[in-house]
Amino acid sequence: MAWAILFVAGLLEIGWAIGLKYTEGFSRLVPSALTLAAMAGSVILLGVALKTLPIGTAYAVWTGIGAVGTAALGIILFGEPATAMRLASIGLIVAGIAGLKLVG
Fold it and tell me: Is the pTM above the cut of 0.85?
């Protein structure tokens, strides 16, 4: 169950990271409120998952999910370049997350 909670926390991490783009420097009310809610939810769920998961593994997986999801959505939503090197680097992060899950 802790892994599922951590996964949802990672999804919220993606949500607030992408949400930051839409807040326009926290000058837009609704995107700002949603972004702040996602931030709080992400950290709270990380804390819940940490009751049973090791901190090093959980934090690395949490940030990894956020990094991969944010990079992928940057490509999809904002037209950021999808170069071979960028995609390979994202793949390395995914491999690291999978490795941590297997040993953690």
Answer: yes
